[in-house]
Amino acid sequence: MTPQFNTTGIIGTGAMGRGIAQMAAQTGSHVCLFDSQPGASAKALEALCAQWDKLVEKGRLAPEQAAALKLHTRCVGSLDELAACDLVIEAIVERLDAKTELFMALEKVVGPEVALATNTSSLSVTAIGALLQHPGRFAGMHFFNPVPLMKVVEIIPGLRTGAAVCGALSAFARQMGHTPVRASDTPGFIVNHAGRGYGTEALRIVSEGVADFATIDRILRDQVGFKLGPFELMDLTGLDVSHPVMESIYRQYYEEPRYRPSALAAQRVAGGLVGRKAGEGFYRYTDGAAVFVPEASAPEVAAMPPVWVSPRAARRAELLQLLKTLGASIETGASPSPLALTLVAPLGFDITTVAVVERLDPARTVGIDMLVDDATTRRRVLATNPATRVDMRQAAHALMARDGKRVSVIRDSGGFVTQRVVAAIVNIASDICQQGICSPTDLETAVKLGLGYPMGPLEMGNCYGPTNVLEVLFNMQTVYGDPRYRPSPWLRRRGAIGLSLLHEEE
Ligand code: NAI
Predict the structure, then answer these.
(1) How far does the centroid of ligand 1 lie from the alpha carbon of residue 144, in Å?
(2) How far is the CA of 261 from the centre of ligand 1 (A)?
(3) Which residue owns the Cα nearest ligand 1 atom 19?
(4) Most buried among 144, 146, 409, 469, by the most CB within 10 A?
């Protein structure tokens, strides 16, 4: 293959620069490595050679290919030696002053036609390029860590970037075997912006005492299919990394409530409980492996009460069928008998409000999350209200566990865990579409590849139903009176007319 760029300069040869260098070299481009710290680029080159040797051992690279890659990758001792490059990618420290200065110095070395790119993850591309004499050839090229495995690259034009450089960078990303997505120059671009819903809402649920973090992880893994629960993910990334990202995006969006970070996370960062690398985060780690506390088994209940289901329950027909399958004695009266366990299945509303509005006895009322299709979920989630009697909670738990499916019981909140987190993810994704940050297709691709979600956020909205997600948000806004749950107009329009979230506008 003829590489899009014959010679690529990489400035900053830490974790990211090294990965980008590997991918650039593998397209056939010659690569020059530069780092201001003495010895750093030599160390990076050594690591790259070791990586290529490993690929040869695994049979994924021919020995002669590895030899060519080593021959075409070299260290340079000064910026001046990058003069012959036709692309320079910067992956230095994440500081605006450092990056601005570097590009100004670089402009003195390379010709005006040379493409320049920054790998910034949180700074504005426009701001970094503001002082350039030829800003048309400058763009963001945002890779993810580890670069060889994370197959998505965000291509970000600044306000003065020309179209040609974006096209060339996209083509180069494709040659690397990556998928380029186009993002406008906005805080967090696509992936770091779209990722705000997951951890942030989960932290909020914990801080409200609705459920502990291990329960939330189990629910989101089993009900939605996330590979890692939000707390496992934060432990893996390190809260010292993810919390500042949350703070930065919140600040850059002028304190938009949807991105409000959690005080709980700030305290954990201050205390050094940042995750796996510290030996302790939300979980404790021994020999690098998380210590999971086993889940309590379902209670034994001697006499199962009859069950009455609210006429306003979500997926009521399915819930009744489920109860039948589980062998429950189902009441069919207009109101529950004095002995009945009373089941409600709200979307967004809390169990307490539902019991009061429907004039049910709160002591016998338990909620079940029916946003999720019972046939596709590995876990059922129940919620009590502050008045729920222990015998009623245990009866509901035992009944729902009769077929061996796992059951979690959480405290009352507006929306269950899955409802809250899914609604937050879909709402933020909808707002990304509303702002025109990227196309819906690029959003789906970027989230699946960059965040490893089981489906794109819009597909997730479709899966649970745009109308249902909208209902969860409207009702949560009522329960909490918090503007963070205000639905994006983009979602509101589609939800209101029952349109697929992946429907492309004319
Ligand atoms: P790192 O700390 O591993 O490496 C940075 C390297 O840049 C160091 O070797 C340092 O000596 C060198 N450096 C610093 N200032 C320099 C200068 N003025 N001139 C030349 N070299 C200089 O950092 P990492 O993680 O590789 O990140 C680099 C960039 O990539 C940052 O902008 C970061 O925000 C971005 N990024 C990082 C990701 C990550 O997960 N680590 C993901 C995506 C983007």
Answers:
(1) 12
(2) 25
(3) 36
(4) 469
What residues does CATH 3.40.50.720 cover in the chain?
7-185, 307-410
What number does the ligand 1 atom closest to the CA of 16 have? 26
- Separation between Cα atoms, residue 456 and residue 444, nearest integer Å: 4
Residue of 10, 11, 13, 16 with the most ligand 1 atoms within 8 Å of its CB, for mutation = 16
Evaluate whether 139 touches 155 at the Cβ level (below 8 Å).
yes
What residues are in contact with ligand 1 under a 6 Å CB criterion? 11-17, 35-37, 40, 91-94, 98, 102, 119-121, 143-145
Q: Which residues are catalytic?
A: 121, 142, 154, 192
Of ligand 1's listed atoms, the one at least distance from the Cα of 37 is 11
What class is the 7-185 domain? alpha beta
From residue 373, give the alpha-carbon distance in Å to each of 178, 360, 420, 425. 34, 25, 16, 19
CA 116 to CA 502: how far, in whole Å?
Answer: 34
Return the structure tokens found at 363: 């002591």
Q: For domain 192-291, is the CATH number 3.90.1070.20?
A: no
Q: With residue 445 as reference, give the H or E element that holds it.
A: helix 440-451
Cβ partners under 8 Å of residue 407, min gap 6? 298, 379, 380, 381, 382, 397, 400, 401
What's domain 307-410's superfamily in CATH?
NAD(P)-binding Rossmann-like Domain (3.40.50.720)
* Distance (Å) from CA 10 to ligand 1 centroid: 11
Q: What whole-number percentage of the chain has pLDDT above 70?
A: 100
User: From the CA of 19, how far away is ligand 1's center (Å)?
Assistant: 11
Q: Whose CA is nearest to atom 11 of ligand 1?
A: 37
pLDDT digits (tens, 9 = 90+) for 7-61: 999 999 999 999 999 999 999 999 999 999 999 999 999 999 999 999 999 999 9
Contact partners, residue 36, CB within 8 Å, separation at least 6: 92
For the segment 330-360, what is each residue's pLDDT rounded down to a tens digit? 999 999 999 999 999 999 999 999 999 999 9
| 260, pLDDT greater than 80 | yes
Q: What is the pLDDT of residue 506?
A: 65
